[in-house]
Specification:
The chain has about 240 residues and is an alpha+beta fold. The protein contains 8 helices and 8 strands. Helix content is about 45%, strand content about 20%. The longest helix has 18 residues. The two termini are about 20 Å apart.
Length: about 240
């Protein structure tokens, strides 16, 4: 899986929002800049990815290192994510009771289909796997908890869109259109097809739209209180 440039879709801070703490937002953007498979990044790389001035990046990385969210390699003069980030992520997952409820059902489905079955939630333009269970079929690409898939091209992302209210979906679609730019008309057509599929069949498809030789089906998971929408997918090799 290619690393996600998390800073590319950085939200613009409300210029007149007095409650918005820019320094905190910038620190969090630095943490987001580390992609999957990338261990170390230097201040220059972080500055380029986040568009934060390098002197500010230097102060932020120093502070985050002191707090345990980054680790500094003196030989490389670069940084990597520290145990503090893992601790936050673990607490988030540990407090999600839905994972414990869903896991045995996901594993049963994975065993029955020899595919990978996952539960995911949205983060900006991506879906993030919160739980995943592997079947016994061949793995073209291994995805685990924390893996990210684009909302616009993945079955799980499109299913999540289907579960949203009309108002919320339109808001997200506008954000995705701004993020994807010239690719949006093509991606939008795929999403519209998924909306029609969901209305007719109750699930969405992604046939090699996200990754070559990988197909998946997915459906939204709307929690009982209606306050949160997640999605579940089942994916595997298109060659089977």
């Amino acid at each position: 899986m290619e690393p996600t440039d998390a800073a590319a879709d950085e939200p613009q801070s409300p210029e007149k929002d007095r409650n918005f703490v820019t320094a905190l937002a910038r620190g969090l953007e630095l943490l987001r800049a580390f992609g999957t498979g990338e261990e170390y990044l230097g201040n220059a790389e972080l500055s380029n990815r986040t568009h934060i001035p390098r002197p500010t990046v230097s102060r932020l990385t120093y502070t985050l290192t002191q707090l345990g969210y980054l680790q500094h390699n003196r030989h490389l003069e670069k940084y990597r994510l520290g145990p503090g980030v893992l601790a936050l992520g673990y607490r988030f997952l540990a407090n999600m009771g839905i994972r414990e409820i869903a896991r045995p059902h996901l594993q049963h489905f994975a065993d029955a289909t020899d595919c990978n079955v996952s539960l995911g939630g949205a983060d900006r333009s991506d879906m993030v796997y919160l739980e995943t269970c592997h079947g016994h079929g061949p793995l073209i690409i291994r995805l685990d908890v924390g893996s990210r898939l684009p909302i616009a091209t993945s079955a799980i992302g499109r299913a999540w869109l289907c579960g949203l209210s009309d108002e919320r979906r339109q808001q997200v679609m506008q954000e995705l259109a701004a993020f994807h730019g010239s690719d949006w008309p093509r991606l939008h057509a795929g999403i519209e097809q998924s909306l029609r599929d969901y209305a007719e069949y109750g699930f969405c498809l992604s046939e090699q739209d996200w990754q070559r030789d990988i197909s998946a089906v997915a459906m939204p998971l709307i929690l009982e209180d209606g306050a949160e929408v997640m999605a579940i997918n089942c994916g595997g090799s298109s060659l089977r």
